[in-house]
Amino acid sequence: MYDLIIVGGGPSGSAAGRLAGKMGLETLLIEKETFPRYKACGGGLSEHAMSYLDHEIPDNIQERDIYGAKLYYKDMMIEGYKDHRLSILVTRSVLDNYLLDMARDVGIEVHTNEKVTDLTELNDHVEVHTDNTIYRSKFVIIAEGSQGTLKNKVRRKDRKDEYGVCMVTEVKENNETIEERLHNAIELHFGGIGQGYGWIFPHRGYYSVGVGGIVKYAHNPKTIMLDLLKSNGFQGDYKLHGHTIPSGGVKRDLVGSRIVLCGDSAGFVDTFTGEGMTYAIRSGQIAVEVIQGILSSDQHSGSLSRYSSRCQSEFGEHLRYSRLFTKIMYTYPDVTFRIFTGQKEIFDKFLDVVAFKITYKDFLKWLLFNFRFRWLKG
């Protein structure tokens, strides 16, 4: 009988596993893939996300420091930079492998290349069925990402306006050309895909190029992706990888009687930027803190509801306002992007949201107070 079984070895599962091991919980982490494995992702890891880690990301994993962004919409363009680093860019297969090793280092049991096929909640434990055997645990954390199906044991399936679809590829390029084009900034291209954007991120020896938008509005993502590649001078036969991503700020059930959803499985993603690693890492840690509290005080498992309230308190409102901000931007795209790209002060302030120095709520209040007359005039 384990204290905790974690399903999934990505950033959320690894963060949960590391903290559980440090707290002395008898923990098993089960991951269906063999690491390192390919992960379709732009690879942005924010300073805010790294602040939750109890260790530094090694220099050899950090491919580029990001201080700013270039935003494009139709014939409009604006760029902005901060005097502090906003994020680093990493290759997800490398980062995830490192984070899983950090979880192993604290002594938890890790099984890779083993798939969890089913979960059964009983009165005093959960049966975890895999393609190899059946395990028993007092609690289970589901951190298998957005495309896993085990989360449906706890919450309903998302509607088409509650999750997004992304396509991504890697374009090889020499570092000198990458440095000349983007240096320490990322490119964001709006207007191509419904309620989303295209991106070009500068990595070490390649660009990450992708598009993503809300499924209900993101029609023909492959065509849009090919157009983005062509319009930016990328000629070649690129392998395109598709994946889904939840929209944050949607009311979802997060816990069962002994099961907790974390990260993308819980829907913890910034709807506008698509950033999810911050909330993946932190939600995994919160889940372990709540479970450890229950085990140490012999409380009833119903206290898992504390997990939902803590997530709501720490970042739930921020994600809800990210969804509201997205709706505003895409309901009146020409007006809002014209204001957004026409006023450097607005873009500079929005980069503070990206850095999590202010919230979406703070940003919207500031925007309405300082620019309400310009907004009305269009």
CATH class of the largest domain: Alpha Beta
- One letter per element, helices H and strands E, the order comes to EHEEHEEEEHEEEEEHEEEHEEHHHHH
Tally of DSSP β-strands? 17
- CA radius of gyration is 21 Å
Uncertain ranges: none
The CATH homology group name of the largest domain: FAD/NAD(P)-binding domain
Largest sheet descriptor: 7 strands, mixed
Q: Hey, roughly how much beta strand do the residues contain?
A: 25-35%
Q: Mean of the pLDDT scores?
A: 94
Structural class: alpha/beta
> How does the overall form come out from the CA principal axes?
globular
Distance between the termini: 63 Å
The CATH topology of the largest domain comes to FAD/NAD(P)-binding domain
Counting structural domains, the number is 3
Please report the number of helical segments.
Answer: 10
Query: Percent range for helical residues?
Result: 25-40%
CATH architecture of the largest domain: 3-Layer(bba) Sandwich
Description:
This protein has 3 domains: 2-63 and 92-158 and 248-323, FAD/NAD(P)-binding domain, CATH 3.50.50.60; 163-246, D-Amino Acid Oxidase, subunit A, domain 2 (D-Amino Acid Oxidase, Chain A, domain 2, 2-Layer Sandwich); 338-377, no CATH class. The relative contact order is 0.16. The protein is of the alpha/beta class and 378 residues long. Strand 10 (126-130) and strand 11 (134-142) form a beta hairpin. Helix 1 packs parallel to helix 3 (92-104), helix 1 packs parallel to helix 6 (277-297) and helix 6 packs antiparallel against helix 7. It is built from 10 helices and 17 strands.
